[in-house]
Amino acid sequence: MSDINIRITDREGLTHDIVAPTDMSMNLMEIIRSYELAEEGTIGVCGGMAMCASCQVYVIKDPGLEPMGDEEDAMLGEAFHVEPNSRLGCQLHIADAMEDLEVEIAPYP
Length: 109
Fold this sequence. Notes:
InterPro entries: 2Fe-2S_ferredoxin-like_sf, Adrenodoxin-like, Beta-grasp_dom_sf. Keywords: 2Fe-2S, Iron, Iron-sulfur, Metal-binding. By secondary structure, this protein is of the alpha+beta class. It has helices at about 30-35, 70-75; strands spanning about 5-10, 15-20, 55-60, 85-90, 100-105. It is about 15% helix and about 25% strand.
């Protein structure tokens, strides 16, 4: 089993140091849900299909994320509270290259 360390600031401003597995095919949205860092029903509303932006995060420290795909870019083009460092958590698949990633969960519309 391989784990990475991620720092997530929730919508209340509290920072959480999280250990996330790289061998379970999880994405950042699922990690946030599993650690209950956002109120139920306010994250991953579409089930991780890049169709709602409820899992939007602001990337504070990017250790080497994969580039944004067209679907993610299109969804962020329609979302609220978008910043230049916005990404969708459902599109960020947990991988070794994400060690020391730091994100802040965006406000829920």
